[in-house]
Amino acid sequence: MSNIVILTGAGISAESGLDTFRAEDGLWAQHRVEDVATPEGFARDPGLVVNFYNARRQQASEVEPNAAHKALAQLEAEHEGSVVVITQNVDDLHERGGSRKVMHMHGALKSALCAACEHRWPAPMVMAPGDACPSCGSPQARPDIVWFGEMPYEMDLIFELLGEADIFAAIGTSGNVYPAAGFVAEARRAGAHTIEFNLERSSVGNMFEEHRTGPASQTVAAWVDEVLSRG
Ligand code: OAD
Ligand code: ZN
Question: Where does the record place the catalytic residues (predicted)?
Fold first, then answer.
Protein backbone atom coordinates (compact mmCIF):
# COMPACT_ATOMS: atom_id res chain seq x y z
CA MET A 1 0.00 0.00 0.00
CA SER A 2 1.84 3.06 -1.21
CA ASN A 3 1.23 6.65 -0.17
CA ILE A 4 0.97 8.91 -3.17
CA VAL A 5 1.44 12.67 -2.78
CA ILE A 6 0.68 14.83 -5.80
CA LEU A 7 1.60 18.48 -6.27
CA THR A 8 -0.27 20.31 -9.01
CA GLY A 9 0.20 23.70 -10.65
CA ALA A 10 -1.45 25.84 -13.30
CA GLY A 11 -0.38 23.44 -16.08
CA ILE A 12 -2.96 20.85 -15.02
CA SER A 13 -5.76 23.36 -15.63
CA ALA A 14 -4.31 24.71 -18.90
CA GLU A 15 -6.16 22.22 -21.06
CA SER A 16 -9.40 23.22 -19.34
CA GLY A 17 -8.77 26.71 -20.72
CA LEU A 18 -7.30 28.58 -17.75
CA ASP A 19 -4.17 30.67 -18.29
CA THR A 20 -0.95 29.61 -16.60
CA PHE A 21 1.20 32.25 -14.91
CA ARG A 22 4.57 32.05 -16.64
CA ALA A 23 3.69 31.24 -20.24
CA GLU A 24 4.68 33.97 -22.71
CA ASP A 25 1.09 35.18 -22.82
CA GLY A 26 0.34 34.00 -19.26
CA LEU A 27 -1.14 35.90 -16.32
CA TRP A 28 2.18 37.39 -15.24
CA ALA A 29 2.66 38.81 -18.73
CA GLN A 30 -0.76 40.46 -18.51
CA HIS A 31 -0.56 41.73 -14.92
CA ARG A 32 2.18 42.88 -12.56
CA VAL A 33 2.66 40.41 -9.71
CA GLU A 34 3.42 43.26 -7.28
CA ASP A 35 0.10 44.89 -8.12
CA VAL A 36 -2.27 41.93 -7.92
CA ALA A 37 -0.58 39.26 -5.80
CA THR A 38 0.98 41.00 -2.81
CA PRO A 39 -0.44 42.46 0.43
CA GLU A 40 1.16 45.80 -0.54
CA GLY A 41 -0.66 45.78 -3.89
CA PHE A 42 -3.94 45.14 -2.09
CA ALA A 43 -3.30 47.99 0.37
CA ARG A 44 -2.54 50.34 -2.55
CA ASP A 45 -5.44 49.44 -4.82
CA PRO A 46 -7.90 46.91 -3.38
CA GLY A 47 -10.27 47.38 -6.34
CA LEU A 48 -7.66 46.28 -8.86
CA VAL A 49 -6.82 43.20 -6.82
CA VAL A 50 -10.43 42.22 -6.10
CA ASN A 51 -11.29 42.60 -9.79
CA PHE A 52 -8.33 40.48 -10.86
CA TYR A 53 -9.59 37.62 -8.67
CA ASN A 54 -13.23 38.26 -9.69
CA ALA A 55 -12.13 37.64 -13.28
CA ARG A 56 -10.24 34.46 -12.27
CA ARG A 57 -13.30 33.25 -10.33
CA GLN A 58 -15.61 33.93 -13.27
CA GLN A 59 -13.32 32.12 -15.72
CA ALA A 60 -12.86 29.14 -13.41
CA SER A 61 -16.64 28.81 -13.16
CA GLU A 62 -16.94 28.68 -16.96
CA VAL A 63 -14.52 25.80 -17.59
CA GLU A 64 -14.62 22.08 -16.86
CA PRO A 65 -12.17 19.68 -15.25
CA ASN A 66 -10.12 17.78 -17.84
CA ALA A 67 -8.92 14.18 -18.11
CA ALA A 68 -5.95 14.83 -15.79
CA HIS A 69 -8.16 16.10 -12.94
CA LYS A 70 -10.51 13.16 -13.46
CA ALA A 71 -7.68 10.62 -13.55
CA LEU A 72 -6.42 11.86 -10.17
CA ALA A 73 -9.92 11.47 -8.73
CA GLN A 74 -10.04 7.91 -10.06
CA LEU A 75 -6.62 7.25 -8.51
CA GLU A 76 -7.87 8.45 -5.13
CA ALA A 77 -11.01 6.33 -5.38
CA GLU A 78 -9.33 3.10 -6.52
CA HIS A 79 -5.77 3.08 -5.13
CA GLU A 80 -5.44 1.08 -1.93
CA GLY A 81 -2.97 3.43 -0.25
CA SER A 82 -3.54 7.10 0.43
CA VAL A 83 -3.69 9.69 -2.34
CA VAL A 84 -3.50 13.38 -1.51
CA VAL A 85 -3.51 16.28 -3.95
CA ILE A 86 -1.66 19.39 -2.81
CA THR A 87 -2.52 22.10 -5.28
CA GLN A 88 -1.07 25.55 -5.86
CA ASN A 89 -4.14 26.27 -7.96
CA VAL A 90 -6.91 28.47 -6.67
CA ASP A 91 -9.55 27.02 -9.04
CA ASP A 92 -11.83 24.19 -7.90
CA LEU A 93 -11.27 21.85 -10.84
CA HIS A 94 -9.83 19.06 -8.68
CA GLU A 95 -12.95 19.01 -6.51
CA ARG A 96 -15.24 19.23 -9.53
CA GLY A 97 -13.25 16.41 -11.13
CA GLY A 98 -14.09 14.24 -8.14
CA SER A 99 -11.03 14.48 -5.87
CA ARG A 100 -11.83 14.66 -2.18
CA LYS A 101 -8.47 15.03 -0.45
CA VAL A 102 -7.34 18.35 -1.89
CA MET A 103 -5.21 20.88 -0.05
CA HIS A 104 -5.19 24.41 -1.45
CA MET A 105 -1.82 25.63 -0.26
CA HIS A 106 -2.19 28.97 -2.11
CA GLY A 107 -5.83 29.52 -1.13
CA ALA A 108 -9.04 29.28 -3.14
CA LEU A 109 -11.16 31.59 -5.30
CA LYS A 110 -14.28 30.15 -3.68
CA SER A 111 -13.25 31.48 -0.29
CA ALA A 112 -13.21 34.99 1.19
CA LEU A 113 -11.05 35.95 4.14
CA CYS A 114 -11.41 38.75 6.69
CA ALA A 115 -8.10 40.60 7.00
CA ALA A 116 -9.17 41.76 10.48
CA CYS A 117 -10.29 38.54 12.22
CA GLU A 118 -9.29 35.74 9.77
CA HIS A 119 -12.86 34.50 9.47
CA ARG A 120 -13.48 32.62 6.19
CA TRP A 121 -16.71 32.29 4.24
CA PRO A 122 -17.82 31.29 0.71
CA ALA A 123 -16.86 34.11 -1.64
CA PRO A 124 -19.61 35.57 -3.83
CA MET A 125 -18.89 35.40 -7.58
CA VAL A 126 -18.19 39.15 -7.51
CA MET A 127 -16.44 40.59 -4.46
CA ALA A 128 -16.17 44.34 -3.92
CA PRO A 129 -13.45 46.21 -2.07
CA GLY A 130 -14.63 47.08 1.43
CA ASP A 131 -17.13 44.19 1.64
CA ALA A 132 -17.98 43.59 5.29
CA CYS A 133 -16.92 40.48 7.18
CA PRO A 134 -20.04 38.50 8.17
CA SER A 135 -18.44 37.66 11.51
CA CYS A 136 -16.86 40.87 12.86
CA GLY A 137 -18.38 43.45 10.49
CA SER A 138 -15.02 44.95 9.54
CA PRO A 139 -14.95 46.20 5.90
CA GLN A 140 -11.82 44.17 5.23
CA ALA A 141 -12.95 41.22 3.12
CA ARG A 142 -10.27 39.97 0.74
CA PRO A 143 -9.92 37.01 -1.61
CA ASP A 144 -8.61 34.02 0.37
CA ILE A 145 -5.48 33.78 -1.75
CA VAL A 146 -1.93 33.41 -0.44
CA TRP A 147 0.02 36.33 -1.85
CA PHE A 148 3.77 36.70 -2.26
CA GLY A 149 5.25 37.40 1.15
CA GLU A 150 2.52 35.39 2.91
CA MET A 151 2.82 31.88 4.35
CA PRO A 152 1.18 29.10 2.32
CA TYR A 153 -1.50 27.11 4.11
CA GLU A 154 -1.17 23.78 5.89
CA MET A 155 2.61 23.57 5.64
CA ASP A 156 3.02 21.40 8.76
CA LEU A 157 0.62 18.77 7.46
CA ILE A 158 2.16 18.95 3.98
CA PHE A 159 5.66 18.25 5.29
CA GLU A 160 4.29 15.37 7.34
CA LEU A 161 2.70 13.89 4.19
CA LEU A 162 5.91 14.38 2.19
CA GLY A 163 7.84 12.56 4.92
CA GLU A 164 5.59 9.52 4.48
CA ALA A 165 5.35 9.58 0.67
CA ASP A 166 6.26 6.52 -1.40
CA ILE A 167 5.52 8.29 -4.67
CA PHE A 168 5.71 12.05 -5.24
CA ALA A 169 4.33 13.40 -8.52
CA ALA A 170 4.48 17.04 -9.61
CA ILE A 171 2.10 17.95 -12.42
CA GLY A 172 2.12 21.17 -14.47
CA THR A 173 4.20 23.35 -12.20
CA SER A 174 7.24 25.39 -13.24
CA GLY A 175 9.19 25.02 -10.00
CA ASN A 176 9.66 28.76 -9.62
CA VAL A 177 7.77 29.31 -6.39
CA TYR A 178 8.90 28.06 -2.99
CA PRO A 179 8.11 26.29 -0.72
CA ALA A 180 6.25 24.12 -3.30
CA ALA A 181 9.32 23.89 -5.55
CA GLY A 182 11.21 22.33 -2.62
CA PHE A 183 8.73 19.51 -2.02
CA VAL A 184 10.53 17.17 -4.42
CA ALA A 185 13.72 17.41 -2.36
CA GLU A 186 11.79 16.70 0.82
CA ALA A 187 10.03 13.70 -0.75
CA ARG A 188 13.34 12.30 -2.00
CA ARG A 189 14.84 12.59 1.47
CA ALA A 190 11.92 10.48 2.65
CA GLY A 191 12.76 7.87 0.00
CA ALA A 192 9.86 8.54 -2.36
CA HIS A 193 10.01 7.81 -6.07
CA THR A 194 9.68 11.19 -7.79
CA ILE A 195 7.99 11.87 -11.13
CA GLU A 196 7.54 15.11 -13.02
CA PHE A 197 4.70 15.64 -15.52
CA ASN A 198 5.21 18.72 -17.68
CA LEU A 199 5.44 19.89 -21.27
CA GLU A 200 9.14 20.46 -20.61
CA ARG A 201 11.59 20.06 -17.76
CA SER A 202 10.83 22.56 -15.01
CA SER A 203 13.43 24.64 -13.18
CA VAL A 204 13.68 21.88 -10.56
CA GLY A 205 13.38 19.11 -13.18
CA ASN A 206 16.80 17.68 -12.37
CA MET A 207 15.54 16.76 -8.90
CA PHE A 208 13.10 14.18 -10.32
CA GLU A 209 13.99 10.57 -11.08
CA GLU A 210 11.38 10.19 -13.78
CA HIS A 211 9.91 12.55 -16.38
CA ARG A 212 6.75 12.25 -18.39
CA THR A 213 6.66 14.90 -21.06
CA GLY A 214 3.47 15.95 -22.79
CA PRO A 215 0.02 17.35 -22.05
CA ALA A 216 -1.16 16.32 -18.58
CA SER A 217 -4.53 15.10 -19.87
CA GLN A 218 -2.65 12.31 -21.65
CA THR A 219 0.40 11.64 -19.47
CA VAL A 220 -1.44 11.67 -16.15
CA ALA A 221 -4.28 9.50 -17.39
CA ALA A 222 -1.78 6.92 -18.72
CA TRP A 223 0.19 6.95 -15.46
CA VAL A 224 -2.94 6.46 -13.34
CA ASP A 225 -3.86 3.42 -15.45
CA GLU A 226 -0.37 2.00 -14.83
CA VAL A 227 -0.46 2.59 -11.08
CA LEU A 228 -3.91 1.05 -10.75
CA SER A 229 -3.02 -1.97 -12.87
CA ARG A 230 0.08 -2.58 -10.70
CA GLY A 231 -2.30 -2.73 -7.74
P1 OAD B 1 3.42 28.37 -13.95
O2 OAD B 1 2.64 29.18 -14.92
O3 OAD B 1 4.63 28.96 -13.36
O4 OAD B 1 3.86 26.99 -14.63
C5 OAD B 1 2.96 26.18 -15.33
C6 OAD B 1 3.71 24.93 -15.79
O7 OAD B 1 2.80 24.06 -16.41
C8 OAD B 1 4.84 25.20 -16.80
O9 OAD B 1 6.01 24.53 -16.35
C10 OAD B 1 4.30 24.58 -18.10
O11 OAD B 1 5.34 24.02 -18.90
C12 OAD B 1 3.37 23.51 -17.58
N13 OAD B 1 2.26 23.19 -18.48
C14 OAD B 1 1.50 24.02 -19.25
N15 OAD B 1 0.54 23.35 -19.91
C16 OAD B 1 0.66 22.05 -19.54
C17 OAD B 1 -0.05 20.85 -19.87
N18 OAD B 1 -1.10 20.85 -20.70
N19 OAD B 1 0.36 19.68 -19.31
C20 OAD B 1 1.42 19.67 -18.46
N21 OAD B 1 2.12 20.75 -18.10
C22 OAD B 1 1.76 21.93 -18.63
O23 OAD B 1 2.37 27.91 -12.81
P24 OAD B 1 2.66 27.32 -11.36
O25 OAD B 1 3.88 26.48 -11.34
O26 OAD B 1 1.40 26.70 -10.89
O27 OAD B 1 1.04 31.68 -6.98
O28 OAD B 1 2.91 28.64 -10.53
C29 OAD B 1 3.13 28.54 -9.15
C30 OAD B 1 2.57 29.75 -8.43
O31 OAD B 1 3.08 30.96 -9.03
C32 OAD B 1 1.08 29.93 -8.56
O33 OAD B 1 0.37 29.17 -7.59
C34 OAD B 1 0.88 31.38 -8.37
C35 OAD B 1 2.02 31.89 -9.22
O36 OAD B 1 2.51 33.13 -8.90
C37 OAD B 1 0.37 32.71 -6.43
O38 OAD B 1 -0.35 33.46 -7.06
C39 OAD B 1 0.60 32.85 -4.97
ZN1 ZN C 1 -13.81 39.64 10.43
Answer: 106
Q: Counting ligands in written order, which one lies closest to the CA of residue 136?
A: 2
CATH of domain 34-58+108-145: 3.30.1600.10
CA 226 to chain centre: 24
For 176-198, how does the pLDDT look when each residue is reduced to its tens digit (9 = 90+)? 999 999 999 999 999 999 999 99
Question: 103 C-alpha vs ligand 2 centroid, how far in Å?
Answer: 23
Tens-digit pLDDT profile for residues 32-74: 999 999 999 999 999 999 999 999 999 999 999 999 999 999 9
Phi then psi dihedrals of residue 216, to 5 deg:
-55, -35
1-18+63-106+150-231 fold:
Rossmann fold (3.40.50)
Contact 193, 170 (CB under 8 A): no
Respond yes or no on whether the N-terminal peptide bond of residue 124 is cis (omega within 30° of 0).
no
In this structure, the residues whose C-beta lies within 6 A of any atom of ligand 1 are: 9-11, 14-15, 20-22, 26, 37, 88, 106, 146, 172-174, 176-177, 197-200, 202, 215-216
CB 197 within 8 A of CB 219: yes
Ligand 1 probe mutation, 57, 198, 204, 218, most atoms within 8 A of CB:
198
* CA of 107, closest atom in ligand 1: 39
Point out which residues pair with 9 in neighbouring strands: none
